[in-house]
Amino acid sequence: MQDFKKSVVYQIYPKSFLDTNGDGLGELRGVTQKLDYLKELGVDYIWLTPFFVSPQNDNGYDVADYRTIDPRYGTMEDFEELAQQANRRGIRLMLDMVFNHTSTEHIWFQKALAGDPVYQDYYIFRPARPDGSAPTNWQSKFGGSAWEYAPQVGKYYLHLFDKTQADLNWENPAVRREVQQIVRFWMDKGVKGFRFDVVNLISKGEYADDDQGDGRRFYTDGPRIHEFLQELNRESFGQDPEIVTVGEMSSTSMENCFRYAGADCGELSMVFSFHHLKVDFMGNEKWVIVPADFGRLKELLFSWQEGMAAHNAWNAVFWCNHDQPRVVSRFGDEGEYWKKSAKMLAGVIHGLRGTPYVYQGEELGMTNAGFTRLEQYRDVESLNHFQILRDKGLSEESVYNILKIHSRDNSRTPMQWTAGENGGFTTGTPWINVNPNTSRINAASQVEDPDSIFAYYKALIRLRKEYDVFAYGDFAPVDQKHPSVLAYRREYKGQSLLCVNNFYRAGCRWHCPMLLEGYRVLLSNYSDSTPAADWELRPYESVLLIRETDDS
Ligand code: NOJ
C-alpha cells in the first residue's frame, strides 16, 4: 500500500498540460503521453483538476455531469487508458471532486428551475427581502453578491463562487447520497485518490447579514461539517483503506484541521490550508500590491507545522496550484537568481512535515504570465475583479499591475515542454498564451541537465523515499526570528534533518544555534555549501543537512 506520508503528488491542470489534437486545449491523452516524464520526476500521485462535463465558466469547477468526461478532455476510454498506463508506472490518480456547488447547467439545477420541488431542495433558494434585495449581504468569492435571483422560481439562490456555480444544500440527505454515489462511481473505476474542492464550505450555518465581513464566518467550517465529512468517509472512500484524500480548506482554522486531517478522526487524510499564501494580501484582500511579509510567512508555516504535529494531523505542503501565482515570481527571483531561488523554495517545502504537492511547471521554475492586456486573461475571477477595481476608481494601469501579480492565470499558462513554437504545448492556437520565456524555461532543456531545477525536484523526491525523517520526523523551528533565514529541524529515529534557507537575494550572516558536528550536506543549490557556526549564506542559498546516529 502506498504510504501517503512518503508520497509526492503532482498536480495537473489538463487544459494547459499537453494538447495532442491541435485544438489548443490540453486533454487526458496529453497526460498519458507524458507519464514517462512524471515517472522520471518520481511522483506517486497525479491530481487531475476537473475534466467532467462543464460549461467551463470556471475551467471545470462548474460541473454539469460528474460521471461523464467533457468531450474537450476526451472520453471514458481515454480516462481508462490513462489510469492503466499510470498504474503500470506505479502512479495513482487523484480526482478533483467539486461538491460545494454544481454548474447551473447541471440537470439538478435545471429541474429546480423548471419547478421541481425535489430538486429545488438540492440547492439553497431563499426569498428576497421585502424590498426585493438579496436575502443576505454575503459576497461571492469572485466578486459581487453571493445571491442571484432566479425569476423562474421567484427566489434567490446562493452561489459562493460564480453565479453559474450554485451551492448545494448538504442539509438535504438526498444530496449527500448523490455525492456518495458519485465518489463510489469513481472508486469502481479504480481511483485511489480524491481532492475535495472547498469542502469546508459545505455546511452553511445561519443565513444572516454579516456586519463584520463578507459572510464567510457563517459558512466556513460550518456547524455540521465534521458530521458530513465523517458520513462521506464512512459511506464512500473510507471503505477502501488505500484511498488518499485531501480537502481544500478555505479560510479555515487550525482547530478544525486537527479534526479534518487527524489520524483517527475518520475524515480526510490531509488538508490544504492557505494562510501562508496570504502574506502578500492586506488581511483577506488579495487585490492589492503589498510586499510579502516574511516574518509572518514563517510564523504561519511553523505554527501550522507544530500545531498539526502536536495533534497527529497531516498537512499537504505546497506553494503552487492553479489558483496561486507562480512561486518563483512571488517569493523568489525571476532574474539573476531564478534557478537558485526556485531550488530554495523547493527545498523549503519538501523538507517540511507533510505531503508535498508539485504543480505542473513548478519543477521547471515556470514564472508568472506577464500579461499586459485584458484580452490575454481568461479567468473569471480576474475578469470580474478588473471591472470591480475599475469601478472603485483605480486606473487601468494600476489594475493591470495588480492582476499581473495576483491573477490565477499566472499559473494557467501552458506547460513549457520545449523552446519551440507554443512551447510544444499545441500545434494549434493555445486557449491562453504561452509564456514567451519558454525559449529559456522548458522541460527539454532541463530533464537531462543534472544542475536543473527539474533535477533538484527529482532529488528531493528521491530523498523522501530514502530517508524516513522526511515523512515521519517531528518538526522544530530553528532561530525563528532571523530576518532573512528560514530554518527548521526534523528528527526521527536517529536521523536529524536540518533545512537552512536564505530567503533573499542579499547574502546574510547566520549564527547557527545548533551544533553542526556530525551533519553532512544532503542537498544544496550551491555546489560548495560549507555549514559553519557563523555561516555566510549566499543569495537564496538552501541547504539540507543530515546527521545519522546508530539508532537510525
Ligand atoms: C477552488 C478551486 O481550486 C478554484 O479553482 C475554483 O475556482 C473554486 N474552488 C470554486 O470551485
From TrEMBL:
It comes from the Bacteria. Its EC number is 3.2.1.93. Keywords: Glycosidase, Hydrolase. InterPro entries: GH (IPR017853), GH13_cat_dom (IPR006047), Glyco_hydro_b (IPR013780), O16G_dom_2 (IPR045857), Trehalose_TreC (IPR012769). SMART domains: Aamy. Residues 11-412 form the Glycosyl hydrolase family 13 catalytic domain. The keyword Hydrolase applies. GO terms for molecular function: alpha,alpha-phosphotrehalase activity. NCBIfam families: PRK10933.1, trehalose_treC. This is Alpha,alpha-phosphotrehalase.
